[in-house]
Amino acid sequence: MANRLAESTSPYLRQHADNPVHWQEWTPQALAEAAERDVPILLSVGYAACHWCHVMAHGSFEDAHVAEVLNDGFVCVKVDREERPDIDAIYMNATIALTGRGGWPMTCFLTPDGRPFYCGTYYPRDTFLNLLSAITDTWRNRRDEVEDASDRIAEELRSMAAGLPGNGPPVDAMLCDGAVAAVLRDEDTEHGGFGGAPKFPPSAMMETLLRHYERTAARPVLDAVARVGAAMARGGIYDQLAGGFARYSVDNAWVVPHFEKMLYDNALLLRAYAHWARRTGDPLAVRVTSETARFLLDELSEGGMFVSSLDADADGREGSTYVWTAEQLTDVLGDDDGRWAADAFGVTPSGTFESGTSVLQLRADPADLQRFGSVRKRLLAARRSRPQPGRDDKVVTAWNGLAITALTEAGVALGDQGLISAAQDCAAALIGLHLVDGRLRRASLGGQVGDSAAILEDYGALATGLLSIYQLDGDQRWRDTAVGLLDTALARFADPTQAGRWFDTADDAEALVLRPGDPLDGATPSGAALITEALLTAAHLVGADRSERYRQAAADALAAHSALLGRAPRSVGHWLAVAEAYIRGPLQVAVACQSPDSALLADARRLAPGGAIVVGGAPGSSELLIGRERVDGADAAYVCRGPVCDLPVGSAEQLAAALGVRI
Predict the structure, then answer these.
(1) Which of 128, 188, 417, 529 has the fewest CB atoms within 10 Å, i.e. the most exposed one?
(2) Which residue intervals define the domain Spermatogenesis-associated protein 20-like TRX in the entry (predicted)?
(3) Fold held by 173-312+392-584
């Protein structure tokens, strides 16, 4: 026996390839080996940028004695939660059910058929050794207790996944109004955001609130977006030198981040800030949109696609790349600029992080922007000479789909064709590598696509991204590929027994303890919400043979989840964003024009509310332009709500009035 992770396509698994533990990947062969040896499975789940995963690896998995105990008494299985979110979801539910909390590294003990009987997260070395001894003793001497526990847990998991609550309210303006009002009651009006520490960026809720504001013109809703948007952008969770957001803040004021930077967070936040910038022109929103897009392109781009994350640690220390003391600022900038920078960035003698160091914040834009730009440039150059965080070069389909959508929307908001081109390049590369024999794969590494099948969120996020590009360039290949993804999703992921319900894994995927299907948002929007967004958009961009089918599937999904929108709105932010678009029709704007540079088409993209569908081109060039002509030799915009269309308009002012937005 030996460690079998060296050839994995997961950087996280490769981090453990030199451990003395005889790790192997999750396979049917691993489960069969546990049955043959009559030993339990130790399942360890984490991801490459996870700080506490590194701590447990150094403390336990690199220890010869711990490895000996594990190798003798267990089949040891490592799983990258980003590559196998289906496995992660099942056993995270078990961990939360047993302990009341979850997190990574996740440490679970399973029977050879995959039923969990004991779960936890991080364990220090000595505690872990004691736990291994207790598990081994129970397995050998009290097997009936193991079987009883695993049966109870498996039954509880099946009960949790049994279905959706019925008898939900209609998906209408009243439901969305009530959900938004409930969310605003939970706002931290002092620091921005919702709830307490640790505080995660509410990207989906920002998008929902912006769409709600566009429908209702309720100023308190926009104010809530401005508060959280500004608080995050000026806090330590935002990289004040290079752009990009860390995963979350450990405090409630956005000061000290957990330093890992994830593609999905930055893609989701880029979309929200781009929407805020487009709707209000707020200078901070514009700057953060530009810098976050640049972070994606500079730090996470690889072969046209985008890799997964930057680590929280560098040289074994969390955050060491990013934090500063006043003395370090002076060393780089000199006395005058050093003192100025310390004041601008909130670097204090006592520090805001560990050992007297400070995370950079920017509580107000400096008056001297030229000096500010020079200081940032010099500090960033000095920072790049420090040990840098590791990068997880794995390319995940869903997260790239989110990035494609965000870059297209940022390109429109900033008038930056380069961002739209980056989205097109990513889409082409992703389709070329990850779409294999008509089915998506979850991830690739170094141009080699992995074996793991894509899950529902991959299909939904990529389809939405492709449709976003199609609305900008009219290239039929994007729409046709998206249609293929949606047809596969309907055939393979929809629950045939409950209209509107979706599973996260395909009907022909590997059989696990249960078939997961979580409708709630987590770090990313739920797969069901993402596929519903894609279906709702596609219904107005395809021919009649599919249009009604897609529209009905989206309506069924929203209806099936409406109870959640009313009961737990903060857990279904992306569903609410889709619902806001749905109850407006969704809005469709078709601009009959001779040139892709049409001023009226640019106005339509600038003015359209979030979730609206905007296409332009010659009459008849797409589904929404069939029968729509230019008027008296001039470009004309047709605004429709569902099947009902207004008379064509020919100016930005008339278009804004038709859309119900202010310019």
Answers:
(1) 417
(2) 3-157
(3) Glycosyltransferase (1.50.10)
